[in-house]
Design brief:
The protein has 508 residues and is α/β, with parallel strands linked by helices. It has twelve helices and 39 strands. The protein has three domains: 5-228, Spore Coat Polysaccharide Biosynthesis Protein SpsA, Chain A (Alpha-Beta Complex); 257-441, Hexapeptide repeat proteins (UDP N-Acetylglucosamine Acyltransferase, domain 1, 3 Solenoid); 453-497, no CATH class. Bound molecules: uridine-diphosphate-N-acetylglucosamine and calcium ion (CA). Uridine-diphosphate-N-acetylglucosamine is lined by residues 10-13, 53, 77, 80-83, 85-86, 105-107, 143-144, 157, 159, 173-176, 202-204, 230.
Length: 508
Amino acid sequence: MPKNLTVIVLAAGGGTRMKSKTMKVLHPIGGRSMIGHVLTAVAACEPERIVAVVGHQREQVGQHIQECAPGAVLAVQEQQLGTGHAVKVAMEACDCRTGTVLVAAGDTPLLQGDALRRFAEEHEAAERAVSILSGVVANPFGYGRVVRGPEGDVEGIVEEKDATPGQREIREINSGILAFDAAFLREALDRIGNDNANGEFYLTDVVGIARADGLTVGAHTVEDVRQTEGANDRAQLAALGAELNRRIVTRWMKDGVSVMDPTTTWIDADVVLAADVTILPNTQLLGATVVDEDAVIGPDTTLKDCEVGRAARVVRTHGELAVIGAEATVGPFAHLRPGTTLGEAGKIGGFVETKNADIGPGAKVPHLTYVGDAEIGEGANIGAGTVFANYDGVAKHRTVVGRHARTASNSTFVAPVVIGDGAGTGAGTVVRRDVPPGALAVSAGPQRNLEGWALQRRPGTDQAAAAAAAGAEVPESETSGERDVSHDTASRVGEAGGGGSESPRTPS
Ligand code: UD1
Ligand code: CA
């Protein structure tokens, strides 16, 4: 590990080519901001201090940097007068006078800590005044070129706009990552001018100054040039995002994760997977998601900040801030909202939405259900089409369903309400009062069958014909009576449900 290391991260530029109200370095890629990736790589070098140069949108950028790298010093560059000026501002903001200074840009999201650390170590071992992390690329357009003398020694860096046609042919480029002897850098920064095509103070001019002073200068060629590639617009951001994802997915496969379709599998940088996890196509594992061994996720699943237990099965599901227990099953078509916890071997089935719900071990919510603000005890079973009515229009309330309760289809639990251990409901029950342990709650009215209804009320229809063919008849008492056949269907249905007094027969 390099000793007495200062890292300066440049992030003052506007990033206008992103055409965004969000600053370039704050754009997300692989589950972090661009600068978040850079700061993670920087942290791996264990620097003495980190100085970030901010300018455009300094409040947002500065706050984000301090969240990613607590203790980072922020240096404000009021006007973007060039990279040399930016580093000067950084050096003035900290009292680093000895050791090594590493300069990096905030927009290289593929950068890894070990590449950065090796570069700093080589720079120190070679006792150079300046080291350039260079790369050999097919298309060097836009980059500063590393100019070497006849012996191959580095003479300087020339920017695209200032380069001669011959220099533009050079394919060895300055990645933008440079290492300096701190004392030399501090003094050299006062000697750079802005007499160039851009009228900017170029940090890269320090290379020529070192050479003129007879100091040692060198370049360290990075094998993996994409690590130092920056994203300037959204197309480049997407291309780097795809490459970052390809690298992450490949790494997990090498660590024992089965990925059926790497091109449609997206895994964020901070996701953690155990060996023998299987990921099926069109799956996104985002944020701080953690998946334990033998779990199978997908197809068509998005999990953000979720925890999935051993051997769980999650199919066509959207989940956020949810915990899925070992051997539990979820989906297809489940929506797990924040605060969902599913116990070991529990089940959340098709077309089920859950939120702030603690579902116990072995408990099942198999079909077409909304579970909000609830606790469901171990081994309980919730019937199809149940609604946990948690919201009274003003406040949210909790429902508690006891251990091994058995609630029937199409129940509504009007919170706050408690359904006791081993209790149950009949189909279509609206539970408004607590149900004691072991009791069966029933709220629907008794059923009445109006014999011959289809023949009387729907004569001449297929319905009536089918009823007649099946032997349906109009009861004796109805054929002689003076019943008003003009009654509309709705009122009859209403009578049937509510047991209205005009009803032709008494409920039984
Ligand atoms: C720079 C290098 C070039 C290198 C390329 C790699 C110089 C003069 N040129 O060119 O040799 O090949 O990076 O990508 O250094 N910034 C500030 N303040 C400023 C100017 C820039 O903070 O006043 C920041 C930018 O936000 C950016 C970084 O410094 O993060 C690089 O600046 P940019 O203008 O993009 O430099 P390039 O022209 O790409
Ligand atoms: Ca750039």
